[in-house]
Write a structure and sequence with these properties.
TPR repeat protein
Length: 155
């Protein structure tokens, strides 16, 4: 607690994760600690804060804020956030529906997963379903964006 109160982002995120869930008495603490850590750049806390806003866990439900935090985490390769961004673009609502953008984010999540088994079956099936909806030209544009990402990412 001392480290978190002193501004240590990892400690704040750890407390945010500890309090995260659906237990009513923990919601305010989850929001507080995840919010501090998310604003400090912790991608796990950004993902949890997005979920807090999306589900309205102790705060008023705010899909735009949820998207904003998921997007921030997705840019830094948080796979769950990338999946939520893909779904947001596929379905529209908070953002304008854009299947090509959805395909980009689900592709980025799928290929950046690095062979992680958790959720890969679902992500792979979702990836295939989104790609089937694209024209060949759209698939090529997505592939080019992913190729550019791969070329500009340090290894």
């Amino acid at each position: 607690m001392k480290l978190a109160k002193g501004g240590n982002v990892d400690a704040q995120a750890a407390l945010g994760e500890h309090f995260f869930g659906d237990i009513e008495e923990n919601l305010a603490a989850a929001y507080y600690w995840n919010g501090l850590a998310a604003r400090g750049g912790h991608i796990g806390a950004q993902g949890r804060l997005a979920t807090i806003y999306h589900e309205g866990l102790g705060v008023e439900r705010n899909p735009k804020e949820a998207f904003r935090w998921w997007y921030s985490a997705a840019l830094r390769d948080h796979h769950g956030a990338q999946l939520m961004i893909a779904v947001s673009y596929e379905l529209g609502g908070v953002v304008e529906a854009d299947l090509e953008e959805a395909a980009y984010w689900i592709s980025r999540s799928y290929f950046r997963a690095g062979g992680r088994p958790e959720g890969l079956d679902f992500v792979g099936a979702y990836y295939e379903s989104v790609l089937r909806k694209l024209s060949e030209e759209q698939r090529l544009r997505v592939a080019e964006r992913l190729r550019h990402l791969a070329e500009t990412t340090p290894r």
